[in-house]
Design brief:
binds 3-methyl-2-oxobutanoic acid, alpha/beta
C-alpha cells in the first residue's frame, strides 16, 4: 500500500520513529522499496553526490526532474519528495508553484524547500494549491555562502528562538514535516516537542521524530565517506571499497586471461 503524508503524521502521534533516505536513480529506489524505507528524498544533494559539483547550488530543475522521474519509476509506492533546487522558489510564489507542479508531474508526491522567514509564505502558497511541502531548517546547504561554510547553526539563544519560531510558522503554513539539519541536539529536541508535525533530523541528534541520511554516506560511496567524514554520518557498509576491488579484479583477470573463460562464452 502506498505511503502517504498521513502515515508520517500518524507515526509522530504514535511515537514511532521512521527514516528517509535520498535516492537519485531507478535501481537505488527499487532497493530502498525492498528495504521498506518509507520516504525517499530526491535531494539537491544530487549536485555534490552525483553530478560532481562542489555544492548543491548549480543543480537545475532539469537535473532534478530527470532523476525524480527515474526514482518514481523505481519506487512509485513510497512517499517521494522532490527537493526544490536553489533559485526555483526564490523569485516569486508563482514561480515556486510552477516548479512544485513540475515535480508532481515527474512522479513526486511532495516537495521540500529550505528555510524559514520569507520561505514560510511560499510554503503556504504551495500547500494552498494541494501540494504537500516538507520544510528544512538549520544548516540549509543552499545558504552555504551566507553561512560562510557548512557550519552547525543556531548555537546562540537568539538563533535558537528564531529557528523554533520558523518551525512553528512552517507548521502553521501547512508543512507536513520539517528537516532539521546541523543544529544542537537540545534545540532539535525542543522543536520536536513543540510542533505537531514530524521532525526529520540529520546532524541534529537522536531526539527527532525521524532521521534522514544521504544514501551514498550510508553505503560508503560519497566523497564524504571516502574523505573526511562529518560527525553525523555513519557508513553502514563500504560499497565504495567493494566497487574499487571489483573493478581491479576485473581488470586483473582480463589482463591475465582469466576472464572471459570458456564458461562465459557462447558455443
Ligand atoms: O538534499 C538533500 O539530500 C537534503 C538532505 C540532506 C536532507 O536536503
Amino acid at each position: 500500500m502506498a505511503i502517504t503524508i498521513n502515515d508520517l503524521q500518524a507515526a509522530k502521534r504514535e511515537g514511532r520513529r521512521f527514516v528517509m533516505l535520498t535516492a537519485y536513480d531507478y535501481p537505488t529506489a527499487r532497493l530502498l522499496a525492498e528495504a521498506e524505507v518509507p520516504v525517499i528524498l530526491v535531494g539537491d544533494s544530487l549536485g555534490d553526490n552525483v553530478l560532481g559539483h562542489a555544492n548543491t547550488l548549480p543543480v537545475t530543475m532539469e537535473d532534478s526532474l530527470h532523476h525524480a522521474r527515474a526514482v518514481a519509476r523505481g519506487a512509485p509506492d513510497l512517499l517521494l519528495v522532490g527537493d526544490m533546487p536553489f533559485g526555483t522558489y526564490h523569485r516569486s510564489a508563482e514561480d515556486a508553484i510552477a516548479n512544485a507542479v513540475a515535480f508532481l508531474k515527474a512522479g513526486m508526491h511532495a516537495v521540500k524547500l529550505e528555510g524559514g522567514g520569507w520561505v514560510v509564505d511560499t510554503v503556504a502558497r504551495i500547500v494552498e494549491r494541494g501540494i504537500p511541502v516538507m520544510g528544512h531548517l538549520g544548516l540549509t546547504p543552499q545558504s552555504v555562502n551566507a553561512f560562510g561554510g557548512m557550519r552547525v547553526q543556531a548555537r546562540t539563544d537568539a538563533a535558537k528562538e528564531r529557528l523554533l519560531a520558523d518551525a512553528q510558522a512552517l507548521e502553521r503554513a501547512g508543512a507536513f514535516a520539517v528537516v532539521l539539519e546541523g543544529i544542537p541536539r537540545d534545540l532539535a529536541r525542543t522543536v520536536s516537542q513543540a510542533i505537531g508535525i514530524p521532525t526529520i533530523g540529520i546532524g541534529a541528534g537522536p531526539d527527532c521524530d525521524a532521521q534522514v541520511l544521504i544514501i551514498y554516506d550510508l553505503i560508503g560511496v560519497s566523497s564524504h565517506t571516502r574523505g573526511s567524514v562529518p560527525k553525523f554520518v555513519r557508513a553502514y557498509t563500504d560499497v565504495g571499497d567493494r566497487i574499487v576491488e571489483a573493478a581491479r579484479s576485473f581488470a586483473c583477470d582480463v589482463r591475465e586471461g582469466r576472464f572471459p573463460d570458456d564458461a562465459h562464452s557462447y558455443h
